[in-house]
UniProtKB/TrEMBL annotation:
Family to which the UniProt record says this protein belongs: Belongs to the sigma-70 factor family. ECF subfamily.
Domain (RNA polymerase sigma-70 region): residue spans on this chain: 12-76
Lineage per the UniProt record: Bacteria, Pseudomonadati, Bacteroidota, Bacteroidia, Bacteroidales
UniProt domain RNA polymerase sigma factor 70 region 4 type: residue ranges: 106-155
Domain of life: Bacteria
Keyword Transcription regulation: yes
Name of the protein: RNA polymerase sigma-70 factor
């Protein structure tokens, strides 16, 4: 495998998830988001194969995804200025939007690493907003078990955040 292909694959692994989360702020449709991000990587690959240089890969990819999302919304006449991220109004900078996406990607990575049942209970509670009793009824477990699973998930996520903090700042 040549170096350029390995570099592209590494870039894909490094940025794909956070770029998808970034695009979700615009498009709100995971299938469309994945198409947009994959198209951007194809275009990026073609640019690299043409030996064109990019000064900052991260910034370039985020700019590509943002522009492609906006083009998609314009093309489909679906721009709702009330639901778009505030970076379109220049309230936040691209770097801040990128950082938010990276933080969100880290959070989802932590959630994905939870044990299966714990993750399911946690998502039903925090993402879907169900009450412990509703989750218990849905999964045929007690509300107390739901409470324990949510607490366990929060503890695992918090411990992961502390490890990341100490890795960078400790």
């Amino acid at each position: 495998m040549n170096k350029q292909k390995r570099d592209i694959e590494e870039t894909f692994r490094c940025y794909y998830k956070s770029l998808c989360l970034y695009a979700m702020h615009y498009l709100h449709d995971m299938d469309l988001v994945e198409d947009v991000v994959q198209d951007c990587f194809v275009e990026f690959w073609e640019r690299m194969n043409a030996e064109k240089t990019v000064s900052s890969v991260k910034s370039y990819l985020y700019m590509m995804v943002r522009n492609r999302c906006l083009d998609t919304l314009k093309k489909d006449n679906q721009i709702d200025y009330n639901s778009l991220p505030s970076d379109l109004e220049n309230i936040i900078q691209d770097e801040e939007a990128e950082e938010r996406s990276l933080i969100e990607a880290r959070l989802w990575t932590a959630i994905d690493s939870l044990p299966e049942k714990c993750r399911e209970v946690f998502l039903l509670s925090k993402r879907d907003g169900l009450k412990y009793k509703e989750i218990g009824d849905k999964l045929n477990i007690s509300a107390k078990t739901v409470e324990n699973q949510v607490a366990k998930a929060m503890r695992i996520i918090k411990e992961g955040a502390i490890k990341i903090y100490y890795f960078f700042f400790g």
